[in-house]
Design goal:
- 2 copies of one chain form a homodimer.
- Chain A is an alpha/beta fold and about 325 residues long.
- The first copy, chain A, has helices at about 5-15, 30-35, 55-60, 65-70, 80-90, 105-115, 125-140, 150-165, 180-195, 210-215, 240-250, 255-270, 275-290, 290-295, 315, and strands at about 25, 40-45, 75, 95-100, 120, 145, 175, 200-205, 250-255, 295-300.
- Chain A has 2 domains: about 5-50 and about 150-315, Rossmann fold, CATH 3.40.50.1100; about 55-145, Rossmann fold (3-Layer(aba) Sandwich), CATH 3.40.50.1100.
- Chain A contains 15 helices and 10 strands.
- In chain A, the strands form 2 sheets. Chain A has a 6-stranded mixed beta sheet with strand order 1-2-10-7-8-9, with helices on both faces. In chain A, strands 5-4-3-6 form a 4-stranded parallel beta sheet, sandwiched between helices.
- In chain A, α5 links the parallel β3 and β4 (about 95-100).
- In chain A, α8 (about 150-165) crosses α9.
Chain lengths: ~325, ~325
């Protein structure tokens, strides 16, 4: 297992610069007063393709040699990674195949295709996904880019907190949502090297708290098909992300479904940004753990903004 | 009638700097391709109190001498100006009274009160509003700050395009929504002095096209109770804003209700920002007048983000 280094992150930063935004950091006086902390929201919802995953995907795609690049890239993801890999491959002008269940939302398929990627459908089971994916790779010779358990991807995600570190002076802590742990691992990689005194928190839905339970148990525990409004956070940790989480994370905090939706609506209302339920989990945990964050300067990573505007969570309630 | 000068705008810039955000400029490759133009969205939805009107209100409030300030400020507005005047007065620590009909949405009253302002309710008629407002001023001695027909307000709004002019090089045109004409007048004031070759367009709902008809007729024509989803744009031009509009605007373009809602949803979806229907009118007119804007670098002013998340226009359709 190759563990990405700070040099890998710095190389990623230079490599992906032409293909990603240096996203803005926004603040809200109202939410600061509510939380008792000073919060700096790093807006990766305003990133290319609508999510921080454009960073890791671009690093993987633009790090390939020409021979491998010609064969393209492939992944299995019905979430932002598939869209972002398609975006990055499109920018390089190489093929991208994304395997996803035929039951995935049409909008997700359209997003991949919108950037020029190719969608191959499988049955909604792990067996089918793995079989179909193996076929795709065998046929095309495409390079597999895992959504998070990949050193190139983690090094790419680490460029987000590098920017945040430059944009906001004297942070006491950074908090990001945790699913597979790609963003949190990139944050650990960057901050443990550049600003080791900054505490790193991960935020997770109570209904998909595998990372929380893993962290407490000291080894990876995977959930069995968790259900949460924060649909980007259902996947389990893997060995590479576990390495970073277990070594560098200060604590993992959880929030209920209602707390997540309330925090999401609060951010939309007061900060005027469109972001995914997953991106609201950090604020939800900050508001319920005032003692942990009170008086601190906290970077909060808003991970993505790809949400169905016709199916907002408060429309159903 | 005192017409504000470029010196007034520059004085406003220095005066309000501690109280307003230098808002970011966002771009969307997707919308650029759709429109055939290069669009630079100046995000005043991310402004303090959620609207550009924080600029003009802050300029009026912080320009008062101490004696007048002690008596406070007052206005009649059930829209963003009332909220923003309350915000600015709160920052200076002086009283603010906003007269609005008792039928105004609770959220608007709450917004004024949220910043420390005082709401005085009247009947939903011009007669009642004027009578109640006269009473408030007689009792308190408060300074009246008109939502747009006020040189201090126009000078303050002009700081927005000053920033845009610094943030984006070589603009060919700027477009802003037009209601009473405060933002458009401020834009005219700034650009006619600093960058006179930049074309200035105003965008208006077809169903509240009084400015368009005034512009064509050569004199102010007021609508009679127009109905439009762009509820910030129902008010008529007044003498001061007519001065700027009639002298410096290149053209006024209109869009239908459906075009406005489609443009609004497009911006939310692709740019991940929450903004009001009024703010979508410029993009709606750009998309239906491709020949006017094709190949140009166009600044698009997103005027505000105060929208009821439980009553989005596409929820009803």
């Amino acid at each position: 297992m190759y563990i990405p280094t700070i040099e890998d992150m710095l190389a990623a930063e230079g490599r992906i610069k032409p293909y990603v935004h240096r996203t803005p950091v926004l603040t809200s006086q109202f939410i600061n007063e509510l939380s008792g902390a000073e919060l700096f929201f790093k807006c990766e919802n305003l990133q290319k393709a609508g999510a921080f995953k454009a960073r890791g995907a671009s690093n993987a795609v633009f790090g390939l040699n020409d021979e491998q690049a010609a064969k393209g890239v492939a992944t299995h993801s019905s979430g932002n990674h598939g869209t972002c890999l398609s975006y990055a491959a499109g920018r390089r002008g190489i093929p991208c195949t994304v395997v996803m269940p035929h039951t995935a939302p049409q909008a997700k398929k359209d997003a991949v295709r919108g950037y020029g990627g190719h969608v191959v459908e499988c049955e909604p089971s792990t067996t089918s996904r793995e079989a179909v994916f193996a076929e795709v790779v065998a046929e095309t010779g495409a390079e597999f880019v895992h959504p998070y358990n990949d050193p190139r991807v983690i090094a790419g995600q680490g460029t987000c907190s590098k920017e945040l570190y430059e944009q906001v002076k004297k942070l006491d802590a950074v908090i990001a949502p945790i699913g597979g742990g790609g963003m949190v691992s990139g944050t650990c990689l960057t901050l443990s090297n550049l600003a080791p005194s900054v505490e790193i928190y991960a935020a997770e839905p109570e209904q998909a708290d595998d990372a929380y339970r893993s962290f407490k148990a000291g080894h990876i525990i995977a959930d069995d098909a968790p259900v949460t409004v924060a649909d980007g956070l259902k996947v389990p940790l893997k060995d590479l992300t576990w390495h970073f989480v277990s070594n560098h994370v200060t604590d993992i905090l959880t929030a209920t479904e209602d707390e997540i939706v309330d925090a999401m609506k609060l951010i939309w209302k007061r900060m005027k940004i469109v972001m995914e339920p997953s991106s609201a989990v950090p604020l939800a945990t900050i508001l319920k753990n005032r003692d942990v964050f009170a008086g601190k300067r906290v970077g909060v990573i808003i991970t993505g903004g790809n949400v169905d505007l016709d199916k907002l969570p408060w429309m159903n309630s």
